[in-house]
Amino acid sequence: MLQTQPLSFRLLAPEDYPSGAGAAPLVLDSPHSGTTYPPDFASAIDLAALRTAEDTWVDDLWGGAPELGVPLIAATFPRSYIDANRAADEIDPLLLDGQWPDPLVPSSKVRLGKGLIWRMLDDGTPLYDRKLSVDEVRHRIEACWKPYHRRLAQLLDAAHSRFGAVWHINCHSMPSVAAAYATDKPGLVHPDFVLGDLDGKTAAPAFRQFVAAWLRGRGYDVAENDPYKGVELVRAFGRPEQGRHSLQIEVNRKLYMDEVSLRPGPGYVKLQTDLRELTAALTDWMRAQLA
Question: Are 271 and 61 in contact (CB under 8 A)?
Fold first, then answer.
């Protein structure tokens, strides 16, 4: 069952669980797969360049989850417009034409030009030839960021209430090689997968370890908490001491698409099948944890 919030998200909920609670204590979210570019974006660069910021196809790669009773929420807005995987106070003051009324956090992502509102693409290309008004940024937060976070929180709360625990996968993709302004490690050749739980702060280690072992068993190269440990969404929702476990999963784009054309590659179907089978294996593992 598809549920939508204008400008913000679409929820693929299991048919038998339209509220989104699901048949298992697992929730997936894809915050960077949005492809609807609002007319008020008014970026200085063309759409082809903007699209390089997307986690293209990630929501579809994990799209078998609802058939297994697992809800999947995906952003419809692009991350270059506003990034759902940032805190609401990670605003880059260099983008603003006035003073933000509340305190701001000068995080590492803001310093890279990748705060709540991106200042540049991964290659350093500026997104704007203008400053943004405080009202523009507020609109993006209210129309996109808040509804996405609120609905994801509701899904996680529903699963936790029903099962007594919840596991959350924050779904992402990464380029085969880190770009100049993408991370603190430009030029790094990425493995097939990177799993991040902020070094064990957002999930019990067994969650990450199960996923890592399963993927390695399928022949994938897997890194854990390096170079990506997880960012805002796992930080905001991961509370392992309360039975709330959040894990970020980054998948290498070379496995499934042409990184220039953004078209699916020959490995697409295999990866999609593997992620569906991983989801099924996880639901069985989670039920065993609750037994």
Answer: yes
